[in-house]
Amino acid sequence: MGSKVRDEKTTAGRGGTPAVSSRRRSIATYVLLFVALALVLDGIAGERGWFANRRDRDQIEQAEAAFAAKRQENAELLDLAHRLQNQDPATIEELARREFGYIRPGETVFIIRDAPGPTKK
Known about the structure:
This protein has helices spanning 2-12, 19-45, 50-85, 89-100. By secondary structure, the protein is mostly helical. The protein has a domain at 62-112. It starts with a helix and ends in a 21-residue tail after the last helix.
């Protein structure tokens, strides 16, 4: 009987599909599928994956927008400094009114305050 089992194993590889070889193939297939799935997941959610790249791209866009806003603010301040150094009367007057609350002689200032809300009893 032992030789019959041996004969099935040796002849099965030539013409039929033995249970051991089929099982090895299916295990190898599952292992390869698992490895492929792990690589795909790493490519999507890993440290250098798609999600991380998207997050980094968003941070770069935000930093570029902040940089552009600061550059614009810097240009406006340089223009104001240039006008103040050249003693532009309109600029000086506008700054004095805005920063210090100065008024021209003869002008009347109205101070409008928010009305207080209803009191609860």
